[in-house]
Amino acid sequence: MARSGRPRGPLAAALVALVVAVGCAVGGVPDSGPREPAPETSRSVRTGAPTARADRTTNADSFQDDISVAVEKADLYWRSQFDASGRSFRPISRIVPYRRDGEVACGGQGLPRNNAVYCSQGDFIAYDLTWSVGAYQQVGDAFVYYLLGHEYAHGIQVRLGIRYNFTIQQELQADCMAGAYLGDSIRSQQLRLEQGDLDEFREGLLAVGDDPSQPWFAEGAHGTAEQRTDSFFRGYEKSLSACGLD
User: Fold this and answer.
1) What average pLDDT does the chain have?
2) Do 80 and 8 form a contact (C-beta atoms < 8 A)?
3) pLDDT score of 47
4) Do the strands 116-119 and 124-128 form a parallel or antiparallel pair, or are they unpaired?
5) What angle do CA 235, 6, 129 make, to 5 degrees?
6) What is the pTM (predicted TM-score) of this model?
7) Alpha-carbon distances, residue 138 vs 55, 103, 113, 202 (angstroms)
8) Does 91 score more than 80 pLDDT?
9) Closest Cα to residue 231, out of 182, 191, 185?
10) Choosing a second label site near 206 at 20 to 30 A (CA), which of 61, 142, 178, 224?
């Protein structure tokens, strides 16, 4: 995936509903004031040693380049959506890599390895650098754009005051919003889709889905691979209007 062009597109007015949920967004959606749940259960993308893809260089330096571009484009995309709807926009404050359990804390709780989260207390995205680079090497660069887009979407949910009864509702909406960010950015030529990127999105989503036996109402549920893939590509194809923001 590569950068190009300029962002555009409206933000559907987000009129709040429901109650509270949290997911990979540690403390993602506060109830009445800040509230910090336990970090989500860590998810590995795959077992075994990472294997670099043959179609491109996927080393730590190129990973950092792609993270920087993904953050830049997410900032621009969401700013354009907020501006179009007459809202003021505040980008995510920080993007924080870490390497060890507990090296970064959210609301006094150390974050585990093999994870990526949005933390509302401090308004930052944190990710395990080793795990993320491994995913980058195994799945491809497009997965990093999805990963950043999903966590950024949790920050947007907080900014819009969106609250849900169940974690899975919040998580699937974030998948849809990540798809909208990427699909709209590609259509506006802010990003350029490269050969294999769509397959990388699908492969990454298959890797992070819940076990089908996970109850949909369970705390921390994110959705099965099929549910997550459907939500992401619904946003990717139909933009934010498909994500239940209004």
Assistant:
1) 80
2) yes
3) 25
4) antiparallel
5) 65
6) 0.80
7) 12, 25, 18, 13
8) yes
9) 182
10) 61
Two tokens at 65? 């380049």
- Find out whether 39 and 112 touch, Cβ atoms under 8 Å: yes
The 3 state secondary structure assigned to 113-155 is CCCEEEECCCCEEEEEHHHHHHHHHHHCHHHHHHHHHHHHHHH
Give ∠ CA 238-203-246 in degrees, rounded to 5: 25
- Which of the pair, 70 or 21, is modelled with greater confidence? 70
pLDDT score at 25: 40
Q: What is the mean pLDDT of residues 113-118?
A: 94
The pLDDT of residue 174: 97
What separation in angstroms does the CA of 105 have from each of 26, 51, 216, 230, 241? 10, 30, 28, 32, 34
For the chain, what is the radius of gyration of the CA atoms?
16
Residue with structure tokens 């990979």? 24
